[in-house]
Amino acid sequence: MTGLPRNTSASIIACSGSRPIFRYRCANKRERWCAAMDGKLKDAMPVIERLSAAGHQAYFVGGCVRDALLGRPIGDVDIATSARPEAVMAIFPKHVPTGIRHGTVTVFVKGRSYEVTTFRTESDYDDHRRPSDVAFVDDIRTDLKRRDFTVNAMAMDADGRVIDPFGGMSDLERGIIRCVGSPDERFREDALRMVRAVRFAAELGFRIAPSTWRALRRNAGLLRHIALERVGAELDKMICGADPDRAAALFIRSGLWRTTKTPLKAPGLPACAGKVRLSDLAAGDRRWIALWAASNVSPEAARSWMSRFAFGKKRMRAIFEPLQLHAAAACIPDTRDDWAALALRHGRQAAADWLDVMRALPGVSPVPADRLERWSAWLADMPAFTAAELALDGTELAEAAGRKGGPWIKRTMDRLLLETAAGRLPNERRALLERALHILDTQADGKDER
Prior knowledge:
Blueprint: E1 9-16, E2 19-25, H1 30-36, H2 39-53, E3 58-61, H3 63-70, E4 78-81, H4 85-91, E5 95-99, E6 104-109, E7 112-118, E8 120-126, E9 130-136, H5 140-144, E10 155-156, E11 162-163, H6 168-174, E12 176-177, H7 183-189, H8 192-204, E13 207-208, H9 210-218, H10 228-239, H11 244-254, H12 285-294, H13 299-306, H14 313-329, H15 336-346, H16 348-360, H17 369-380, H18 394-401, H19 407-421, H20 429-442
Parallel strand pairs: 4-7, 12-13
Antiparallel strand pairs: 1-2, 3-4, 3-10, 5-6, 6-7, 8-9, 10-11
Helix pairs in contact: 8-10, 8-11, 12-14, 12-16, 14-15, 14-16, 15-16, 16-17, 19-20
């Protein structure tokens, strides 16, 4: 667990019923608190101040408060206010009514944008995804009550005072992810919260409270109501996050992989072979490559599942071209020609990514380490990966051969590319042209010899 920063402390300043509200102190002076404040919170302070000057309550809320208390880098800064959307738009001339029905206005201050949302309650969730009824309220505590987890249900004012009606600071100190109120109710309101519980636990190094975990397991079937695009966005944050190995393990243990709108097809429980640590790889798509390469899930099943993540064609190719190469690598002879043909088939980047993953995680590799090193050297020595990178083009070849254009040009250029990639032919115009003419003279229409 990261824990609260050493130069901060909390003391009870008031009670709401039996629940304490905490004061967050930074050397007891606002000046020193502001000096120690995260840069993103400092940049957003004018939004809080302008709302307050107009007579409205205004607070930092959600993840930015959690991360400020943990001393973590802050992502987006969200602000909650008692001001109604119309008042927010009047105070900030530059704005966009991004979610006006739900009380959210994006305001622009000094070239930066911030989402400002009116205190609200929510009810009647449609399909376990979104509220159909929103009511604006005047109390920040009522607004915090609708949030997912206690560590995200805190608010901080301009002086650094934290309003914490649900024990979020205590859960931060103990390293616990716990739902606000009834976990069954929170998960039934928005089933994606179950996936978020796993992500927060892995990212922060926290435990999931037993009551929250049991409710997650009970309600796992509700995840079928959530678009795989939203689930995929959460999974991507996990795999590219601080502890992808724990995230994957928790997601599998939760059973959520079985209950997505399109379930992941796996022979039994999804598992990874050998001692694989995704965190040994830099955050990015190579972790996805390693995950599926080590998994007992087939590449076809993985691609089918992830195709609904809305990653885009380019990114899907970046993940699955190396996996196709992975499947073929164990079957080819250890010759430069065969490796060159395989690398050309899947592309320079796919080959490089696959080699990097295999060298970082040798327990996943289908070939021995010395072969990986040899193939890496051959890859680095390949001067061209497409015919366009050759020092001879098709027009020059047709003119020199005295032939009209046709399929023979591509066949001949592909042959030149393979021989160049395999190190048997230099990427020089004269050498390429001589070899091309020899192929045409000795092998009908540029076809390979039989």
